[in-house]
Amino acid sequence: MPRRAAAPRPPPGEFELIERFTRALPLAGAGVRLGPGDDTALLAPPPGEDLAATVDAVVEGVHFDARFTAEDVGWKALAVNLSDLASMGARPLWALVALAFPRGTPPERLEGVARGLGACARAHRIAVVGGNVSRASELSVTVTAVGAVRRGRALLRSGARPGDLLVASGTFGDAALGLAPGAPAALVRRQRRPAPRLALGRALAGVARAAIDVSDGLVQDLGHLCDESGVAAVLDAAAVPTSAAYRRVARSLPDPLGPALGGGEDYELVAALPPARLARALRAAARARVPLAVIGRVERGSGVRILGADGAERPAPSGHDHLRAPRPL
Amino acid sequence: MPRRAAAPRPPPGEFELIERFTRALPLAGAGVRLGPGDDTALLAPPPGEDLAATVDAVVEGVHFDARFTAEDVGWKALAVNLSDLASMGARPLWALVALAFPRGTPPERLEGVARGLGACARAHRIAVVGGNVSRASELSVTVTAVGAVRRGRALLRSGARPGDLLVASGTFGDAALGLAPGAPAALVRRQRRPAPRLALGRALAGVARAAIDVSDGLVQDLGHLCDESGVAAVLDAAAVPTSAAYRRVARSLPDPLGPALGGGEDYELVAALPPARLARALRAAARARVPLAVIGRVERGSGVRILGADGAERPAPSGHDHLRAPRPL
């Protein structure tokens, strides 16, 4: 008797894992005509809006290590992408998730990643509409996120003009200090569960002229904004907001402002706007329940000058390179 | 003198590599308002159409090995995604590319990947609108591809009905045999430079009732189509088209039809359609310059029955699992 081909069962592994992974994710949402399971998702884009699309990966040993729970990894993989949507002033819609992991990875670990990713997706009302699984040497999660923004209202990096004020959300340096052994829980949480500033980004669209999210470090990302806008920035180091937990840890560092200026992964927003719009921006931030501080100004020229508390120029901190493993502090 | 912060130059590594990588890619195209370089791309979706979105990864040691050139890797990473768009009947628009590679990867290898990817993108008029680079233990390329399809015309897996004919494009088993040592160049090319059946997919939209692209193997993928449609398939093994190069190699195998039925990565399309539409489908395929063969029929029930040349049932070949390294032949 031939082995009946009537049941060409999917090999275990792949399809079962996909099933277990997707169970923890929100698969339906606005504009989702067809979610995961076919050759592609089918999506109805909102009429009259542009789409904002970005891709980012988190890789074991590079962006996270054994101190991260699986849930942290899943949360962060999506959150860093939503931060890019936030900095454009876009509202998030859909994500696609490519998961890679070594043979023998416990299914529970992958389910943990899915739970963290699902929690972040639900918190921001985004549907996971597609995905892929593959073997690899280490765990990684590559997320493509798509959002929508009213045509002509996106916050580009290139819109800053001399005379603009620079404003920044939240606090800086927490995520970098959250990597240090024995760091306070509040700082660890900033490192592992970043909160994308989506409400603020949308509130600033139409108010600010330019924005960027701070993934690589405040000075470095402000430098990108200056480069794209063809302007210079003067950063008032003493005005850069820090948290109480940050200040308690950082006061023993040789450069107590170093992590705030140079540490990456805070996923705060920095925006440039004309002084006449500051009051509107502050009201918008209050509605979004996010603190907003003036941290400097835009001038003619190029590059970022940093003024210390004494008003004198101070040196730049070192930056953050996603091609390198997290630097030890 | 403080080190002047005026030039917080991006660390070498990351930004220079991105620059070198993107130079080989088509970055502009239909609907691209803003390509790579800002926090997200900005894209204008075509009015009145749905978007088709998919993500797929190729990983060193899993989907390719040292016999692949860097150009092959880049080509295949995009082509496998375009095949998913093809099977939905969508026309390709945009891609986002997440590249991961080990420290010390020669920049020339990454440029080779970009050239292969760029060649495939140009061949199919798709713009690369965003990307990401990261360290990892092995080279991998994760591509998200987005296309457009007229609302209600997408070719789902779930539309097949009892009485439909099953048609298949091109030839089967070539890519699997292309992995064998000393394989003829024509078969090697099928493995390393798959040609997504985009023109055929679009031509079949509105003609066929269901379609799938064959990445995991004909019997296995036909099984997915049957599962999603709630039907059974009878596959006429002798009608499955094979190439002359395939037949020369396969005649010495214990099961000469094994790779054609079970080998993955041919990226041909299989579609189900009512017999009355066969002539239209054949004309559509002729316009797309792709051979189309009737390989079986859809019945009530579930699963795939395979009939051998003698009309008797034959056993199923083994499938293909993307979580496993390419099986030796």
From TrEMBL, chains A, B:
UniProt binding sites for Mg(2+) 5: D216
Name of the protein described by the UniProt record: Thiamine-monophosphate kinase
InterPro entries (alphabetical): PurM-like_C_dom (IPR010918), PurM-like_C_sf (IPR036676), PurM-like_N (IPR016188), PurM-like_N_sf (IPR036921), ThiL-like (IPR006283)
Binding site for Mg(2+) 3: D39, D84, D213
Enzymatic reactions: thiamine phosphate + ATP = thiamine diphosphate + ADP
GO molecular function: ATP binding; magnesium ion binding; thiamine-phosphate kinase activity
Biased composition (Basic and acidic residues): 319-329
Matching SUPFAM superfamilies: PurM C-terminal domain-like, PurM N-terminal domain-like
Domain PurM-like C-terminal positions: 199-305
Residues binding Mg(2+) 4: D39, T54, D84
GO BP terms: thiamine biosynthetic process; thiamine diphosphate biosynthetic process
Binding site for Mg(2+) 1: D56, N132
The family this protein is said to belong to: Belongs to the thiamine-monophosphate kinase family.
Pfam family, one: AIRS_C
Further remark: Reaction mechanism of ThiL seems to utilize a direct, inline transfer of the gamma-phosphate of ATP to TMP rather than a phosphorylated enzyme intermediate.
Keyword entries, A-Z: ATP-binding, Kinase, Magnesium, Metal-binding, Nucleotide-binding, Thiamine biosynthesis, Transferase
Native source species: Anaeromyxobacter dehalogenans (strain ATCC BAA-258 / DSM 21875 / 2CP-1)
Ranges annotated as spanning the membrane: none
Residues binding ATP, per UniProt: G131, N132, R157, S215
Residue span, PurM-like N-terminal domain: 37-149
EC number(s) recorded for this UniProt protein: 2.7.4.16
Source species taxonomy: Bacteria, Pseudomonadati, Myxococcota, Myxococcia, Myxococcales
Binding site for Mg(2+) 2: D56, D84
Binding of substrate, residues: H63, E265
Region Disordered, annotated ranges: 309-329
Purpose of the protein: Catalyzes the ATP-dependent phosphorylation of thiamine-monophosphate (TMP) to form thiamine-pyrophosphate (TPP), the active form of vitamin B1.
